[in-house]
Write a structure and sequence with these properties.
Strand order of the largest sheet: 1-2-3-5-7-8-10-12-15-14-13
Shape: globular
Largest sheet: 11 strands, mixed
Order of helices and strands: HEHEHEEEEEHEHEEHEEHEEHEHH
Distance between the termini: 68 Å
Number of domains: 2
Number of strands: 15
Length: 336
């Protein structure tokens, strides 16, 4: 087999890439050779299986035992079911890892050599305490690229006793960061922007999720207040004033009621040209200087295939929502 031939090479180095059910067939074989593996790129079935049968646990146990050659990790776990055992989180420090991309993972990988870190969660069971995420960042002082997508516990969803015992996370300094994308609640964005220090050269992309559709009593004034508070954070200062072009992007629900519904999202992005400003989603692009997005929680966090089919008349004129959004972003360099 290809694996046997590779193992016969002097100073062999392995790279594993597999998506779908085949992963389980090769997983245990692969994990036997983690000491010489430099890359793993796997899309795995659900982590809901109990204890030793869980793919996430199999991988994390081997990584904890040591993976000295591992440089690139890309693991995506099915989120369909989250067994209670899968909610236990762990941070694994490795000596040589450069890039880490994890979705719905019960463990995180960190270390002084990590320059790119992407963490995402599609289900609440896979979200982390703020203190743990900040500890991960502290363990990656040489980060250049950072993306956090809904990986922080929703504090508002906790019980009152849990909220009262929610521990502070402290501060983090990332002096080498050049790209930061964070998609989370307004609370977590404000905490991140106040407690995580990044250099002025960092391209910051804030993606603030707000309870628009389906939230009783959420009004245009709430939207404006959230925009004002979020866009005035230290991480967003002077982004707009340093560049010539500001581009507005809006996506509506596409239904018959779209003129009377909150949009799916609204984005302001910045650059020296429209083309550059529009590349804000690409961490490898140097064109966009930064962006600020507000996103409709009802359309962004649901697992329903076509959630807009369940969104009815919000009683909010779309053009008024856009106007209030822009007014709330005046600190980014907009003028009346």
């Amino acid at each position: 087999t290809a694996l046997k031939r590779a193992l016969n090479v002097n100073e062999a180095r392995l790279s594993f890439t597999a998506h779908g059910g085949v992963c389980l067939c090769v997983l245990k074989t692969m994990l036997q050779h983690m000491d010489i593996t430099v890359r793993i790129d796997l899309a795995l079935p659900s982590t809901d299986q109990i204890d030793h049968l869980s793919p996430a646990k199999l991988i994390s146990d081997e990584l904890k035992a040591g993976a000295p050659a591992l440089q690139h990790v890309d693991l995506r776990f099915d989120w369909a079911h989250a067994h209670e055992d899968a909610r236990k989180k762990s941070i694994i420090l490795l000596p040589s890892v450069i890039s880490v991309r994890l979705m719905n993972s019960t463990f995180a990988i960190a270390g002084p050599t990590v320059t790119a870190l992407f963490l995402a969660a599609e289900e609440a069971a896979f979200r982390w305490l703020r203190m743990d995420i900040y500890n991960i960042l502290r363990s990656c002082p040489n980060l250049v690229t950072l993306s956090l997508q809904m990986v922080l516990v929703d504090v508002d969803a906790l019980t009152l006793p849990e909220q009262n015992t929610y521990r502070p996370a402290g501060t983090v300094v990332l002096n080498k960061l050049r790209y930061m994308h964070m998609s989370d609640t307004c609370r977590e964005w404000l905490m991140m922007s106040a407690n995580v220090t990044v250099p002025m050269a960092c391209r910051v992309h804030a993606d603030v999720i707000l309870p628009m559709s389906g939230s009783v009593g959420y009004a245009l004034t709430d939207l404006q207040s959230a925009c004002q508070n979020s866009s005035m954070s230290p991480s967003m200062w002077q982004i707009g004033s340093r560049h010539h072009v500001m581009a507005l992007r809006l996506r509506d629900t596409g239904t018959a009621n779209t003129q009377w519904q909150w949009p799916e999202y609204m984005t302001l992005s910045f650059g020296d040209t429209v083309t550059q400003a529009s590349t804000f989603r690409d961490p490898n692009s140097q064109g966009s200087a930064g962006s600020f997005t507000v996103r409709n929680a009802a359309l962004s966090l649901t697992s329903v295939e076509n959630p807009w089919m369940h969104i009815h008349n919000d009683g909010v004129r779309r053009h008024r929502a856009v106007d209030v959004f822009l007014r709330g972003c005046k600190s980014l360099g907009l003028e009346d």
